[in-house]
Amino acid sequence: MGYKTDWFKGIFPALVTPFGGAQGKPFTADDKLDEAAYRELIRFVLPHVNGVVPCGTTGEFSYMTLEERKRAVEICLDEVDGRVPVVAGTGCQSTRETVALTEWSRDAGVSGALVVAPYFLKPTFNEVYDHFRAVDKVGLPFILYNIPQCSGTHFKWWTAEGMALDLDNAIGIKDSSGDMPFMEAMFEKVKGKVSIFVGHDEVVQAALAAGADGAILASANLIPDVWQRVYRATLEGDLATAQEWQQKVQKLVRIVVRCSSTQAVKEGLRMMGLPIGDSRHPVMPGGGFRREDYGELRLQLEGLGKIAPANVLYDLGDKQVETQIAATPQTGRTISGFTMKVGEGFAGPPFQELAHVDLLLGLKDGPVGRAIERSMEGWGEERGLRIINERPRTLLVPTITIHTAKQRRLFYEHAAEGVNLAIRLSIEDGFLPEGILDDVVLIANVFVHPAASIAKRVEFNNYKATRHAIRKALEGRPTVEELINEKAAARHPFRYAP
Amino acid sequence: MKVPWFEGVFPALVTPFVKKTEEVDEQAYRRLIRSCLPDVNGLVTSGTTGEFPYLTREEQRRLVVIGVEEAGGKPVIAGCGASSTQEALTLVRDAQEAGAAAALIVTPYFLHPSDKGVYQHFYDIATGVDLPIILYNIPQVMDAYLPRTVVEDLADLPNVIGLKDSSGNLTYTMELLEFVSDRINIFIGHDEVVLPALAGGVSGMILASAQVYPDVWQEVFRLVAEGQVEEARALQRSVQKLSRIFCRYGGGVAVKAALKMMGLDMGPPRKPLKPVGGALIHETRAEIRLELEKLAKIPVEEAAFEYPNGPLAERFDDLEITPEIIASHDMRIGSGTAGEGLNKVQIDLIAGGKQTPLGDAYALQLTYPLHGREALTTILEPALTVRPSTLLLPALPQKNLRQANMIYGPTQLALARAIVDALEEGHIPPTAVDGEVMVALATVHPRALDRHALYQSVHAAATLALAQTFA
After folding, report:
1. Which domain holds residue B438?
2. Which of A289, A342, A485 should we substitute to test contact with B (largest number of B Cβ atoms within 10 Å)?
3. Domain end: B294, B327, B342, which one?
4. B85-98 vs B57-70: helix axis angle to the nearest 10?
């Protein structure tokens, strides 16, 4: 019979494992566990958490050697130094390896093991049961871990119930499926007998309110303080506060959960100034975590005050303007070359309403300014060009011919409003500081698909695409290094036949 | 029980509608039937392709009547799909009175009855009428398979004569052949796997594309019957892409688009389906035209053009860049040609400082839409813009979306890769990465259609042009 401990509750980050140093160069000699960065991360989260989980799914356990997993657990134990429990991810595909690693972890002194359902070969449930039974014999408290998105097998409630009740060392279940009916069945069957943890960042508050004992989360690397607040508020019966904070971070955690969580968390930490490298291949930058996700995650972290503002000098040649922006380590502290800067933004889904913006930002008396004046004196009206903003002067250009009244409305009202909103917010956040608004001008060449229907989506996507394009133009992204890293793997959507 | 007439090629006819009023266009329906009748063994009215869920009982009955009038004695199978057993029975009785040879009945949908419920549905119909019944499995729209074990039992009912399997899942088709082909005929309903299904032993096909190229399917059917698999393979492959488009990217809507290109205007689909911009997107519609040209179902538009020749420095007129400007601003130019025939590509490349007239030309190009030669920023993929910033400018006017597709996809990517290759190999000086811009004038044959070959040509031509530019 399983049992409930008094320590397995609250907020546990599923720690990412830093590889390869600050610059993050997978597949180089540097691609090894970065102990210093790992310790820094643990020190960063420790004040806000009730325990830590090294080598979970977010820790890329499946891309690590057994030796690396052991070393990560050792570092974690050493850095935590008994202040909170350490729950080591010890799940492997075969029973033999899982038992061996769980035994090692027991001897190393962890408080418990998080054991994922054996994956890939999809054993049947009686085989899964016997796998956990073998783990049970190790004598270390362990947590049954359901994550069908990765493992390919979803616990049935009767299997989970059987394991939780039969196995002497089972102290909890972590459910990362986000499947609330499954969780409710768990509450019905085993609540009070073992701990029930939620592992899906998008439903944390709902699960805690429904009775979950805690959460093991990828996003608790980035915002452990927020999750602690949600947990505390729920314990105190203050559902309104708990809901408010869940909603504040909903978009952030949706990006983390759905857009390649390991890479998303690492890039987020990097934006916040922690020296964390990239995920190991085949997860890669610009893959599941796309450039638009980068832009959106960054805005979310900024909104929570997680990215410190920095002073940046814009050198316009005959004029210097100082601005304060939420800079990342990638942002130059002096930005020059305002003759003409090129930025590209892309945002979707859905396909029909996706936005693609080719943005030029440059001096009024340079090529961009001259192109605006010349086109407006010449073919501007005939070809549907429109000045949509004066400070900075902004020319909106349709990428493709506008034929119908519906297209016209979506383009000149909704796409234009999206572009303008991006400009307004870029003025507010300092990327377009007051001091340059009379000196630089913008050309936004904007694509709206002829089949677009959802007006608000056209607006939002164009807002996102433009906001990101402005930052990319100013910061010089993508960099040559990024281009070279992704050259071979780039997937152009129109390269292939249907 | 098997019937001898149920084999060969049957088109799942679209239902023509009058634009705006959405009424059934009976004359168009007759034209459609006459166009495909010589190459088919029978007709299927108001099937999935015929938008049956959007048709009234009376409309479905009329379609059978017209079908029988036009079919010249060939069997007409009436689609009688409904969610409830009662409604399906009513439709089957109507079909029988209208002269149908059989009824095609889809697995009951929406409320997802149990296996027992599914069996009872077909049992009630088969025992309630005196008309041959064809079972119909199409999980793509029903969200459920007709269970094989249920089919096994239904095959014992005397007036169940066959099953149409539109799943495209050959493991399911083979399972049916194993268990029931001694008692009923199995038809394939998925255009992409006709040949393997025929080779596996099905008796015929009910297909959306059998009203677009019934001749091809009739020939495939004959060749397989005669054991000439090589020839059948080539034919199946010749219609593979179109069949894929019909099956996956638009269904009846895409079939109507194809028929319209062939001069058979069947009108729009009924709402909420859109004639284009919904399941069938504009880009795919352009692809249909291309494929119909290849099949000689519609004539090819010939276009006269020339690859730019003469001194390279004189080819950038469109950008208002003259040989004198090139010389006085130390701009770099280069050219490359690669590929043969339709895949021959020429890239004329110019690079220069942002402060030079090329900077002005770059900015101006992005304000100059609607002239058929819209310039594009060169990207590896969306949001992955190359450096130095490069515009891709088509040398020839883009007359249709299919031409545009060749530029925006394969050409754009190949140019981007060639540029990043040059960056990686250190051919492009670091000062140029931020300080310069480039414009690539691309001449691509207006009838180029092989994306893979085109990609290779553009990559080779751009690599040559870059080498010359940065020599």
Report:
1. 312-469
2. A342
3. B294
4. 30
Tell me how far apart the alpha carbons of residues A328 and A326 are, in angstroms, rounded to a whole number: 7
pLDDT for res B277: 87
Residues B354 and B280 in one domain: no
Q: What one-character DSSP code corresponds to residue A330?
A: T
Please write the tens of the pLDDT for every residue from B221-260: 999 999 999 999 999 999 999 999 999 998 999 999 999 9
Contacts of B368 in chain A (CB under 8 A): 375, 379, 383
User: Which of B281, B287, B437 lies nearest to residue A497, judging by beta carbons?
Assistant: B287
What gap in Å lies between CA A55 and CA A60, rounded to an integer?
A: 6
Judging contacts by C-beta atoms under 8 Å, the chain A residues touching residue B366 are 358, 360, 371, 397, 443, 445
pLDDT at A263 (0 to 100)? 96
Cβ-nearest to A398 among B274, B369, B382: B369
Enter the pTM of the model.
Answer: 0.93
Domains in chain A, CATH or no CATH each = 10-303 (3.20.20.70), 337-486 (3.30.230.60)
Q: Which of A291, A292, A451 sits opposite B281 (nearest CB)?
A: A451
Instruction: Show the CA angle centred on residue A107, arms to residues A101 and A110, nearest 5°.
Output: 80
Find the CATH number of the domain harbouring B156: 3.20.20.70
* CATH number of the domain enclosing B349: 3.30.230.60
- Give the minimum alpha-carbon distance from B175 to chain A in angstroms, rounded to a whole number: 24
Number of domains in chain B: 2
Write out the catalytic residue numbers of A. 145, 174
Task: Give B367's contacts in chain A (Cβ within 8 Å).
Answer: 371-372, 374-375, 380, 385, 395, 397, 443, 445
Joined tokens for residue B242: 């179109």
Instruction: Sort A448 into a burial class: Cβ within 10 Å, 0-12 / 13-18 / 19+.
Output: buried
Is position B403 within any domain? yes
Assess whether B289 and B323 both reside in one domain. no
How far apart CA A470 and CA A485 sit, in angstroms, is: 23
In a domain, B304, yes or no: no
Residues of chain A found within 8 Å of residue B281, distances taken between Cβ atoms = 351-352, 451
Amino acid A24: pLDDT: 44
* pLDDT tens-digit readout, A59-86: 999 999 999 999 999 999 999 999 999 9
User: What value does the mean pLDDT take over residues B2-11?
Assistant: 98
CB-based contact B434 A484, cutoff 8 Å? no
User: In terms of CA atoms, which chain B residue is nearest residue A371?
Assistant: B364
Q: Chain B residues with CB inside 8 Å of A332's CB?
A: none
A355 vs A333: CA distance, rounded Å? 30
The Cα B70–Cα B73 span in angstroms is: 8
Whether B57 and B190 map to the same domain: the answer is: yes
CA distance A436 to chain B (A): 19
- Residue B215 resides in a domain: yes
Contact A87, A52 (CB under 8 A): yes
- The predicted-structure confidence for A457-469, as pLDDT tens digits, reads as follows 999 999 999 999 9
- Is there a single domain that holds both residue B392 and residue B262? no
Which pLDDT does position A21 carry in this prediction? Answer: 53
Q: Is residue B307 part of a domain?
A: no
Rounded to an integer, what distance in angstroms lies between the CA atom of residue B359 and that of residue A46?
52
- pLDDT tens-digit map of B350-405: 999 999 999 999 999 999 866 788 899 999 999 999 999 999 999 999 887 778 88
Q: Tell me the shortest Cα–Cα distance from B2 to chain A, in angstroms.
A: 38
pLDDT at B370: 61
Q: How high is the mean pLDDT of chain B?
A: 96
Rounded alpha-carbon distances, angstroms, from residue B397 to B246, B304, B370, B375, B404: 30, 12, 10, 11, 9
- The pLDDT value recorded for residue B408 is 86
Structural domain ending residue among the three candidates B264, B294, B324: B294
Query: Which of A1-5, A302-306, A465-469, B303-307 is predicted least confidently?
Result: B303-307
Do B436 and B360 lie in one domain? The reply is: yes
Angstrom distance (rounded) from CA A87 to CA A71: 14
- State ipTM: 0.93
